[in-house]
Amino acid sequence: MSKGLQQRIVGALVLGALGLIILPVLFDFTAPSRIDRSTKLPAAPEISAVTVIKAERPAAVTSGVLDNAIFDVSKLIVATADEAPIALNEQGLPKRWYIKVGSFGNKANADSALTTLRNKGFKAFVNKLDQQGDRLYEIWVGPNIDKRRAVADQVNIDKLLKVKSKMFAAIL
């Protein structure tokens, strides 16, 4: 090997080594989004357990007052198509809509329909009637303060139970 070639190879190696040392100092080759690993999460807050007191019915309220006020089906009238979907009655309370699903003479049939409706998420209840010595079980769904939702529920109930239900509005 000639002396000139050796000097060129050594020069190339020296320049390469200098490039490896100086090039990273001049240019930053790391990713532009650096992760700050010096931050730490704050300590967990201390949480104490809270005891919840079960609500109790006031002594002045008898057990049937609420049921009579909301579910008194004797104070319902048949709804008409031209009534506003959401309205207030004379007392300034929201108008309520009920769906009469049907009347059953057999308690087992009424319980079956009631269970089916409740399992599908409807607010259903039974009203017992004594009519000419016979006991009837009326299945009602409601109350609902939006007539449009009550109409949609009525359509779903009619399909589910294969009945022709009626819409009623509360007059109180």
Widest sheet, order of strands: 1-5-2-4-3
Poorly predicted segments:
none
Radius of gyration: 39 Å
Q: The biggest beta sheet, please?
A: 5 strands, antiparallel
> What is the third-level CATH name, the topology of the domain at 75-170?
Alpha-Beta Plaits
CATH superfamily of the domain at 75-170: Sporulation related repeat
SSE pattern, N- to C-terminal: HHEEHEEHE
Which bin fits the share of residues in helices?
A: 25-40%
What's the rounded overall pLDDT mean?
Answer: 82
- The proportion of strand residues reads 15-25%
Coarse morphology: elongated
By secondary-structure content and strand pairing, the structural class works out as alpha+beta
CATH architecture of the domain at 75-170: 2-Layer Sandwich
CATH class of the domain at 75-170: Alpha Beta
Q: Distance between the terminal alpha carbons, to the nearest Å?
A: 114 Å
Number of helices: 4
Q: How many beta-strand runs?
A: 5
Describe, in plain words, how this protein is organized in 3D.
The protein has a domain at 75-170: 2-Layer Sandwich (Alpha-Beta Plaits), CATH 3.30.70. The chain is built from four helices and five strands, in the order ααββαββαβ. Helices cover 34% and strands 20% of the residues. It has 172 residues and is an alpha+beta fold. The chain is elongated and about 130 Å long. The chain has helices spanning 3-26, 65-70, 107-119, 147-161, and strands spanning 76-78, 97-104, 124-131, 134-144, 166-170. A five-stranded antiparallel sheet has the order 1-5-2-4-3, with helices on one face. It starts with a helix and ends with a strand. Strand 3 and strand 4 form a beta hairpin.
